[in-house]
Amino acid sequence: MVLVLLSVVSVACGGGGSDSNDHITVQHILLSVAGSGETTPFVVKKRANRTPEAAKVLAGDMQRRATSGEDFDKLASQNSDDAPPGIYAMSNFGVPADPGEYPRSNVPQPFGNVSFSLKVGEVGVAPYDPANNPAGYEIIKRIK
To answer: What's the CATH fold of domain 20-142?
Structure first.
């Protein structure tokens, strides 16, 4: 009985651990599209000539490979147009950012939405959107 009660108190007090959504860390693979612009916080290290359609197909392939167990670090280093290693720490809406973190309000909306919807170890894709995610498609893995 005491163990069950302690578990409930731990979860209720935020002791749920790594799936907390106040502060998260993600790694991404940026697949930029031709004509894409710089988008904070990303540093596009190489400009791609791919169309949005080609980037979407490549993003699907990267997501499939990542979810089937390929090494995400290796996929990122070989395929991302962002400066390596493409790891970003963020604080959620209404949560003060720790040093080195980006407030969620300062990243592209699709990137933030996907990042904060993932559990640790999960992979998702933030779609290219010229207005809200102009850098390109992003395959995102939550690492913390």
So the answer is: Chitinase A; domain 3 (3.10.50)
